[in-house]
Amino acid sequence: MNRQNTTPHPFSWSAQIELGYQWVNNRTVPTLRRHQGPLRVQRHLYPEGPEVCQHILLHPPGGIAGGDTLSIYVSAGKNTSVQITNPGATRWYRSYYPSYQNTKLYIDDNAILEWLPQESIFFSGCRAYLDTVIKLGVDSRLITWDIFALGRPGSNELFTHGEVHQRFQIRSHLNNQLLWSERMKFLGGNILLHSPVGLSGYPIAGTLLANGAVSAKLLEACRNLPIEGYGGITQFPTGFIVARFLGQESEAARNWFIALWEILRPVLIGRSVCFPRIWNT
């Protein structure tokens, strides 16, 4: 990614976390939990039983200021099932200095990772760089979504200046083959934010992505779900299911993605939806 004027802020925070999981005695067991700075998880949660380990990723400052860097590494070992979410929105604050989030997710053979973060809010004037790389093993499963708000729609704050750079890649662990790649660049006040080929003036956008295959009937059920905004879902021949959202409220995006998750999860990973309790707080 292009990183210009990256002189660090003298008071910036650097945070890093590494999480690893292994399959031991028919149980998904956390075997690595290493952190540095204000980024961590606490209890190991098993709301669905011992096969699925759930972690709540905490960033106590509650927001990312100029010069901050978050580095997240997750390794779901063979046969494990891992679900990771966070307690609330991630806020990217206005700053002259750029801020970074680097995420690397590894899903070993026959493993499952549900990476389900809550929305990111990019304040006008922020300089945000996000880089996500996911590696898939043989017969592994991924369900993830990304919801972002440009500006603060609830406060009538538009994204008039600032920049957001985002790269998202999925690769095969076997040969590092690129399976999916997206790059996005949003500049405050840019015409593309209002153009029909961009965001059409909507401050909220989101993407849900999963690998696997579903029937045409189930895909049609997904398309018939009610939605407060605009959305569509497509199954690609490459083995990915992708849903897109545009709208006025992040809650509408979240509700639609959760409804899709309720339909897709039983088919793709063989389990009905179990909602993280943290989402209700």
Automatic annotation (TrEMBL):
Its main location: cytoplasm. This is Urease accessory protein UreD. Belongs to the UreD family. UreD, UreF and UreG form a complex that acts as a GTP-hydrolysis-dependent molecular chaperone, activating the urease apoprotein by helping to assemble the nickel containing metallocenter of UreC. The UreE protein probably delivers the nickel. It is found in: Cytoplasm. InterPro entries: UreD (IPR002669). One of its GO terms (molecular function) is nickel cation binding. One of its GO terms (cellular component) is cytoplasm.
